[in-house]
């Protein structure tokens, strides 16, 4: 799909959740408030209406987001299955190396994703011509990402030493990281332009790009890991190389299509602008805590996995399986947070905070219900799921018990992370991060360590500690949401770039 096609962004009018309105003369409004022919000038009236989106409209917007994130989770799942076919050492090495890599990478991902707050505010205020300037400022941050992550990856030996990895697992992880780091700029651009479209209320085109990237990644994985399709058998290195190639293709598609379509004119897209330091400072002021929150979340789980790693290779392999499987639930669930963030940006830009609060409540209810339902198969089919990854009986047994704990906390997990992402769309990032740090330091690490000593098998005790952390964190996020201070936060873009 190309953005200029009938199903692409910018070609048909719609309410929030249905895609942006086509720029033409102002027209009548739909129930959800979109101009049936919004204005194209930077000073146009807001395309956001006076009533909140219905549940159907929210789902119409959120489902493509879910499918896009699900494709990413499917790739991670397939990649882990492929690693399991190579043996226990690759199965232990690659997911852990990826998790360690994400600690550095996700800071920048969170920063890019927070573009939804700035672009959404400009769109909601009817100042579409300012969106291109905002996006161009993020280009500089994407380019800066590579040297930052490359330096970070050089610290892998510290992770390996802390986890007491075997030489074989450590060596495989180093191979993976040495190649994977080259995808940084490409993946950041994909996230940035996906956030750009999502801030406009369009979730379909990012879905198409994500599907293309994941399909290409899986095909290249199969060929480069096992030596199929006429490609060399590179094993772990093939997994990393496939990701780099697929992400670069995705960046070319989404950026190229954006500039080749009418969006280049409608939103004044450009590759380079003279930096406007007040805008850049505000992007960093809001975006860095958002990225730091994502980094701290991953760091907390890396720290947790280091505790699990000390329990032995089988518990670590079982936990790696659990992390990959729950990504199939978590990532689509994250779509509800992104949907709420998009609505918040647009409604707050239009100076309608009551609609932002009401819509966030609706989106959160849908997201928590989804997470709770998807926890059911974890309880009843945990061992069968683990058997898809490995034939090791002990790994399967421990994974089955672990999945029961995971099943119990899914709804609370959704309550916490969906709310944090939704608040980020309003520009509220610092207080949620401080709450997150407090919960991890006071609950996750001590509870996981102590319960791993008291409960048999120790792996179950560690995950019960994680359950306690998720429960406390969910309560903290609901306290912040209920206060509604986030509806009064102002950004530099509110006064124009």
Number of helices: 18
- Work out the radius of gyration: 22 Å
The main pleated sheet reads as:
none
Beta-strand content bin: under 5%
- Which regions contain 5 or more consecutive residues with pLDDT less than 50? 1-43
* Helix amount: over 70%
| Total number of beta strands | 0
Shape: globular
**Which structural class do you get from the secondary structure elements?**
mainly alpha
Features:
497 residues; mainly alpha; single chain
Explain what you see.
The protein has 497 residues and is an all-alpha fold. It has one domain (67-495). Helix content is 74%, strand content 0%. Helix 3 (115-124) packs parallel to helix 7 (184-199) and helix 16 packs parallel to helix 18 (458-483). It is globular and about 60 Å long. It starts with 54 loop residues before the first helix and ends in a 14-residue tail after the last helix. The relative contact order is 0.13.
Brief overview:
The chain is mainly α and 497 residues long.
List the helices and strands and how they pair.
Layout: H1 55-86, H2 88-113, H3 115-124, H4 131-153, H5 156-163, H6 167-180, H7 184-199, H8 204-226, H9 236-260, H10 263-266, H11 277-309, H12 313-349, H13 353-374, H14 376-380, H15 382-386, H16 393-425, H17 430-454, H18 458-483
Helix pairs in contact: 1-2, 1-8, 1-12, 2-4, 2-6, 2-7, 2-11, 2-12, 3-4, 3-7, 3-12, 4-7, 6-9, 7-9, 8-9, 11-17, 12-13, 12-16, 13-16, 16-18, 17-18
């Amino acid at each position: 799909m190309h953005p200029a096609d009938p199903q692409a962004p910018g070609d048909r009018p719609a309410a929030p959740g249905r895609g942006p309105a086509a720029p033409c003369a102002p027209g009548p409004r739909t129930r959800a408030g979109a101009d049936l022919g919004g204005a194209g000038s930077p000073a146009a009236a807001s395309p956001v209406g006076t009533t909140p989106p219905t549940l159907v409209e929210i789902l119409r917007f959120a489902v493509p987001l879910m499918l896009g994130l699900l494709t990413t989770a499917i790739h991670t799942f397939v990649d882990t299955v492929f690693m399991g076919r190579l043996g226990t050492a690759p199965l232990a090495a690659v997911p852990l190396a990826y998790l360690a890599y994400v600690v550095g990478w996700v800071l920048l991902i969170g920063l890019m994703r927070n573009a939804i707050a700035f672009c959404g505010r400009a769109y909601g205020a009817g100042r579409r011509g300012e969106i291109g300037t905002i996006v161009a400022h993020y280009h500089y941050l994407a380019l800066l990402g590579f040297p930052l992550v490359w330096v970070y990856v050089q610290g892998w030996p510290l992770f390996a030493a802390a986890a007491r990895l075997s030489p074989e697992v450590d060596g495989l992880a180093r191979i993976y990281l040495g190649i994977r780091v080259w995808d940084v700029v490409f993946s950041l651009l994909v996230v940035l332009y996906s956030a750009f479209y999502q801030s406009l209320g369009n979730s379909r085109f990012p879905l198409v790009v994500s599907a293309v990237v994941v399909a290409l990644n899986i095909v290249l994985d199969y060929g480069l890991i096992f030596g199929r399709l006429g490609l060399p058998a590179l094993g772990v290195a093939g997994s990393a190389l496939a990701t780099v190639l697929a992400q670069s293709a995705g960046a070319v598609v989404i950026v190229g299509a954006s500039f080749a379509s009418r969006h280049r004119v409608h939103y004044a897209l450009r590759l380079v602008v003279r930096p406007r330091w007040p805008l850049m400072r505000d992007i960093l002021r809001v975006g860095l805590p958002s990225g730091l929150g994502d980094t701290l979340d991953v760091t907390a789980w890396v720290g947790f996995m280091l505790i699990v790693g000390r329990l032995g290779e089988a518990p670590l392999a079982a936990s790696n399986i659990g992390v990959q499987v729950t990504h199939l639930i978590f990532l689509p669930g994250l779509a509800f947070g992104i949907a709420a963030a998009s609505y918040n940006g647009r409604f707050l830009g239009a100076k309608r905070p009551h609609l932002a609060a009401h819509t966030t409540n609706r989106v959160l209810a849908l997201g928590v219900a989804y997470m709770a339902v998807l926890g059911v198969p974890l309880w009843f089919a945990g061992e069968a799921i683990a058997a898809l990854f490995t034939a090791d009986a002990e790994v399967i047994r421990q994974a089955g018990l672990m999945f029961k704990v995971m099943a119990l906390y899914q709804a609370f997990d959704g309550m916490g992370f969906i709310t944090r992402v939704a608040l980020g769309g309003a520009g509220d990032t610092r207080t949620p991060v401080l709450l997150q740090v407090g919960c991890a330091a006071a609950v996750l690490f001590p509870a996981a360590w102590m319960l791993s000593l008291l409960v048999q098998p120790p792996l179950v005790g560690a995950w019960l500690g994680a359950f306690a952390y998720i429960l406390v964190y969910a309560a903290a996020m609901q306290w912040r949401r209920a206060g509604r201070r986030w509806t009064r936060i102002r950004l530099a873009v509110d006064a124009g770039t």
